[in-house]
Structure formats: structure tokens, C-alpha cells
Amino acid sequence: MPKGVGKVVAQNKKAYHDYFIEETYEAGIVLQGTEIKSIRAGKVNLKDAYARIQNGEAILFGMHVSPYEQGNIFNHDPLRTRKLLLHKREINKLLGETKEAGYALVPLKLYLKNGFCKVLIGLAKGKKNYDKRESLKQKEAKREIERAFRDRQKM
């Protein structure tokens, strides 16, 4: 199955607005206790999440996984840091890329693939305000073209 394909649980749409996505990587994620049950229920937020390479490991910060409702004392901290599972060569490549100015690791999607939770990480370069405005103009123009084409089809 190609990367990024599976039952999408959460998406970070803001990342596509704020960044140019250069490359994407599929990473597994280390979860504790009832976190997977909360994720399967869709109680996860990637909005303010980011990843970093520390001590040769990829770490995900700021991903909010709500505590599981039926859980008791075994519930987890919602904002704890989580380790990402990547190959060593991918980690080394990402470490070299993020040392360059302007590059960041941003989670784009959280999805279930073959029963496992996966995160699609994007190597991203920040957009300036004029780039964001240009992206919005292109999106609006595309929407107008599709709308006109659809109206033409109805006739």
C-alpha cells in the first residue's frame, strides 16, 4: 500500500497553507495504553504539532490525543512527546535537511494502515505572506473553473 493511504483519522490542513511540502515520509508512532483507542475514536488533533530529531531519534511534539473515556488510571498525558519510528537513513537525511535554514518537520496526516497507526511527516519550508495569498488566489481560480465547467455540464 502506498504511503499516506489508509483510514485517515486526522489531517493538518493548516500545514499546507503555511508551508511548501518538499518531501513526505511515513512513520510509525510509539503509543501507550489507551492512546490507540482514542485515536481510533478520532479524538486527536495535529494542529500545533511538529517533529524534531533529537539524539538520533525522531520525536513528535504537541500532538493532542484526548484521554480515553472508558479508561481509568491507565489514561495518558494528552500532550506527551511521542517517538516516531523511521529508518536510520531517513533520520540522518532529515537531520541534514532540517539543519538548513527554513526547513521544518510537520505532521500532515494521522491514519490507520493494516491495523497500525501511521503519521505522514512532511519536510516543509515556510511560506511568506505573499505566497499564502497567491495560493489562495490559485485555489479560488481553480474552484471557479470547476464551478463553470459543472454548470456547463448541466445544460
Task: Please summarize what this structure is.
The protein has 155 residues and is α+β, with helices and mostly antiparallel strands.
Provide a descriptive summary of the structure in words:
By secondary structure, this protein is of the alpha+beta class. The protein has a single domain (8-127), classed as Small protein B (Small Protein B, Chain: A, Beta Barrel). 32% of the residues lie in helices and 36% in strands. It contains four helices and nine strands; from the N terminus they run E-H-E-H-E-E-E-E-E-H-E-E-H. It has a seven-stranded antiparallel beta sheet. Strands 3-6 form a two-stranded antiparallel sheet. The protein is globular. The termini are far apart. The mean pLDDT is 87. Keywords: Cytoplasm, RNA-binding. One of its GO terms (molecular function) is RNA binding.
What secondary-structure arrangement, pairings included, does this model have?
Layout: E1 7-11, H1 13-18, E2 19-29, H2 35-40, E3 44-45, E4 50-54, E5 57-61, E6 64-65, E7 82-85, H3 88-99, E8 103-113, E9 116-126, H4 129-154
Antiparallel strand pairs: 1-8, 2-7, 2-9, 3-6, 4-5, 5-7, 8-9
